[in-house]
Specification:
- The structure is a single chain.
- By secondary structure, the protein is of the alpha/beta class.
- It has 5 domains: 3-127, GIY-YIG endonuclease (3-Layer(aba) Sandwich); 148-349, P-loop containing nucleotide triphosphate hydrolases (Rossmann fold, 3-Layer(aba) Sandwich), CATH 3.40.50; 359-405 and 467-614, P-loop containing nucleotide triphosphate hydrolases (Rossmann fold, 3-Layer(aba) Sandwich), CATH 3.40.50; 410-464, no CATH class; 623-720, Alpha-Beta Plaits (2-Layer Sandwich).
- The protein is built from 19 helices and 28 strands.
- A 7-stranded parallel β-sheet has the order 8-9-7-10-11-6-12, sandwiched between helices. Strands 13-23-22-14-21-20 form a 6-stranded parallel β-sheet, with helices on both faces.
- Strand 26 (665-672) and strand 27 form a beta hairpin.
- Bound molecules: adenosine-5'-diphosphate (ADP) and zinc ion (ZN) (2 copies).
Length: 725
């Protein structure tokens, strides 16, 4: 089309979001022209440079904003047959981009299935056909279990209180049954309503999916879909389209599902809400749990706005609102605190199902082994070894749980108890092996590793928790000579990320544990989750101390959650009389975390830990962001961060007086593939001030990066509400 023709035709101006480079941080929607009227939320193909890309129509513009029709590029086509992404979804994307300091396009496009970018409209139309037989929404008459009194109370409370709900229930208390009933209620109330159920790991979806599919099979097979990164691109597209078109009534997914298009979303469930995997660790580093809560509120507000009469003052959860249930036996301290101040309601389920009439339901006894009184350098204390041997002799199974997560190493002296605390902060300094320094990740204070313990002169100072790495190899030696009741040799199996890389490996290993072929199972946190081992009567945590004294302030919370989960694994259905035990080896048996663990008392743990966090101004009482930078040299990476912070200070950016940027430090793992990595912590007591500051800082950082000396920088990015610092 020639330019002179354009001016005579009708021209519509629109802004379109497209995927922008990941680290740019800035960059809003681009202006395009179209000869056809388009609606916000429509998917379009537009030219970008020499490429043709997928974009989302964001706004209709009143004019060209100064561009001549010849300067502006034209929309190439729309994805026909696909309804526009609704306003609520666009608001959610805008919020996510703003809060986590990423571009709109990056968040919007990452939330769409990759295959959508490659499809012609013809193909789309074919996939979008509705399910042939419209299935009945009548629930078939079916035997459902009678709810426990706690389940009944939780469901009743959910029906009347519109606040986000924290379902605080121990493992086996019947939380999943509550999710199922809450979902059933929502789906029955409105024939179009949709439910989103999120789980932390793909590993856990098949079991749960089977349970949901079975319960909702009367809706028709196409109505329950999964959405996670383990699907093929084609499956993922299919699920996404089903959710977007409203065909799928129930979507079961991992964190990515929180940004799925679900036009009639009425309930979001976040199972194991404390799980760190809800935090995206690249690109837009969002917390899917936090976004779930935000999204539920947004869906409710928008449904209320869009006409249907609704009494604003009513406390009832109206059919147009969207509820959110966060479930956990060991909630995140953020969610727990929200229940203490009344922002969330708390629904408690103490009782394990069946515990009233079966001894099997009772919780394991927790035994602490004081490692100060055990032979030096032993990896398994003699009393624990004896207890394991006893289990083997009785034909019972033991689970040895290694807490191998990459905690930032803190140095300690085992003689006097000295730890590498920072003299200026309530934080531990991290041992950096590369240059043998101790560095505070808060204030940056750095010293060379001392030759000997500064407090007692002992030369044997070492990272906390070291010494058990080779346990797996030792174990066979340690248990030598011990045989099963029938005299056959014992079997030790290991389950961790390395042994389960192959598809199906985990399942087959678990099957052999269930079949009783394994006597001692060794594994990392991955076995503490979601698996029900009936014949395990002993669980041992052999090196948990690293998490008690970690520079990562969330480490104790994770440790407590893992140990509670591990106790939940033991002997859920163990034969009568076999009282199960949890053993914990520690140099700090007096630590309050273990006191709370002995009592299986999460609220007591949370109270202590929240008091510590409040005193230190940490989450949920303070707010933080990390800026990370990567370069060929550590000096350059740190120099960039420090220069950007200095520029922010000099320009007195909005919020700067309430925000503290600390000096840049190397990351705990400071060099990866010859790239040096540095980070800078930014803290504030006000979430709003931090948000304003970060938003204003983005362009300053981009400008700093343009300075000649920082051109070689590889990349930088912000992480808002980081999980570890
Ligand atoms: P959670 O999700 O809290 O770990 P589940 O919902 O998986 O607990 O329940 C644990 C077990 O108890 C499951 O096997 C489940 O089928 C069963 N169950 C749940 N609720 C009831 C009930 N009211 N009566 C009998 N069994 C139940
Ligand atoms: Zn010492
Ligand atoms: Zn410090």
């Amino acid at each position: 089309m020639k330019p002179e023709q354009i001016s005579t035709n009708m021209v519509f101006w629109i802004s379109v979001v497209v995927a922008t480079p990941a680290h740019s941080g800035v960059g809003g929607p681009l202006t395009y022209r179209s000869e056809l009227p388009l609606a916000p939320g429509q998917l379009v193909r537009v030219p970008l440079g020499r490429r043709e890309v997928l974009g989302v129509v964001w706004e209709l513009l009143p004019d060209s904003g100064g561009l001549t029709p010849a300067q502006a590029k034209a929309v190439l086509g729309t994805l026909e047959g696909l309804a526009p992404l609704n306003p609520t979804w666009r608001k959610l994307v805008a919020f996510t981009a703003g809060y986590y300091q990423r571009s709109l396009g990056e968040v919007a496009l990452a939330a769409l299935p990759p295959q959508l970018r490659e499809l012609s409209t013809v193909q789309l139309a074919r996939r979008l056909r509705r399910p042939s037989a419209d299935t009945s929404t009548e629930e078939s008459v079916r035997e459902l279990v009678a709810l426990s009194p706690e389940q009944t109370a939780a469901l009743a409370q959910l029906a009347v209180d519109p606040r986000p709900a924290l379902l605080f229930g121990s493992t086996g208390s019947g939380k999943t049954e509550v999710y199922l009933r809450a979902a059933a209620r929502v789906l029955a109330e409105d024939p179009e309503a949709q439910v989103l159920v999120m789980v932390p790991e793909i590993n856990l979806t098949p079991q749960l999916q089977a349970r949901f599919e079975e319960r909702f099979k009367h809706l028709g097979r196409e109505r329950v879909v999964a959405l996670h990164s383990g699907l093929t691109p084609a499956q993922r597209l299919k699920s996404w389209l089903a959710a977007h078109a409203g065909v799928a009534r129930l979507v079961l997914g991992t964190r990515m599902a929180v940004l799925a298009s679900m036009p009639k979303l009425r309930l979001i469930v976040v199972d194991e809400e404390h799980d760190p995997s809800y935090k995206q660790q690249e690109g837009a580093r969002y917390s899917a749990r936090d976004l779930a809560v935000y999204r539920a509120r947004l869906e409710g507000l928008d449904a209320a706005e869009s006409g249907k009469p609704q009494t604003q003052t009513s406390q009832d959860a109206s059919p147009n609102s969207c509820s959110v249930i966060l479930g956990s036996a060991t909630p995140s301290l953020e969610s727990w605190q929200a229940t203490l101040v009344g922002r969330y309601q708390r629904l408690t389920m103490h009782e394990r199902i069946g515990s009233a009439d079966q001894a099997a339901g009772s919780l394991p006894t927790v035994r602490l082994v004081d490692m100060n009184h055990q032979p030096k350098h032993c990896t398994l204390a003699p009393p624990l070894l004896a207890a394991i041997a006893q289990r083997i002799a009785r034909g019972e199974q033991s689970l040895i749980f290694l807490n191998r997560r990459g905690y930032a190493p803190v140095l300690a002296c085992h003689d006097c108890g000295w730890k590498s605390e920072c003299p200026h902060c309530s934080a531990y300094r991290v041992f950096h092996k590369i240059d043998r320094t101790l560095r505070c990740h808060h204030c940056g204070f750095t010293e060379r590793v001392p030759r000997a313990c500064p407090s007692c002169g002992n030369v044997d100072i070492a990272p906390v928790g070291r010494g058990t790495e080779r346990l797996e190899e030792h174990l066979a030696e340690l248990l030598q000579g011990i045989t099963r009741p029938d005299g056959s040799p014992l079997v030790i199996a290991r389950i961790d990320a390395d042994t389960t890389r192959l598809k199906g490996a985990l399942e087959s290993q678990l099957a052999s544990v269930h079949a009783g072929e394994v006597d001692v199972l060794v594994g990392t946190q991955m076995i503490a989750k979601g698996h029900d081992f009936r014949h395990i009567t002993l669980v041992a945590a052999v090196n948990p101390d690293g998490a008690l004294f970690s520079s990562d302030f969330r480490a104790p919370e994770r440790l407590f959650g893992l140990l509670m989960q591990a106790t939940g694994r033991a002997g859920r259905n163990a034969e009568k009389g076999a009282q199960s035990e949890m053993w914990v080896q520690t140099f700090h048996p007096e630590h309050p975390l273990f006191g709370a663990l002995k009592q299986h008392d999460y609220p007591a743990f949370a109270a202590q830990e929240l008091a510590d966090r409040e005193a230190a101004g940490m989450s949920p009482f303070g707010f933080s962001a990390l800026v990370r930078a990567e370069a060929r040299s550590q000096d350059l990476a740190q120099g960039f961060l420090n220069a950007a912070a200095a520029a922010a200070q000099a320009q007195a950016l909005p919020g700067h007086d309430m925000v503290t940027p600390y000096p840049a430090v190397p990351m705990t793992i400071q060099r990866v593939a010859n790239v040096e990595r540095a980070q800078m912590l930014v803290e504030s007591s006000s979430r709003v001030a931090l948000q304003r500051f970060l938003a204003a800082w983005q362009p300053v950082m981009a400008a700093t990066r343009q300075q000649a000396e920082f051109k070689p920088l590889i990349r930088w990015a912000m992480d808002v509400d980081p999980l570890a610092i």
